[in-house]
Amino acid sequence: MQPKMMRNRVLMYSLLTATATGVSACTRTIQSTETSIPGETAPSVRGDAPDAVGAVTGKAAVEGFLKAVKAQDLQTMSAIWGTTKGAARDQMKREDLEKRLIIMQCTLTHDRWALLEDRPRLQTGGRQEFQLEFFQGPRSAKTSILTVNGPGGRWFVEDINLLPLKDFCR
Question: Residue span of the signal peptide, if any (predicted)?
Answer without folding.
Answer: 1-25
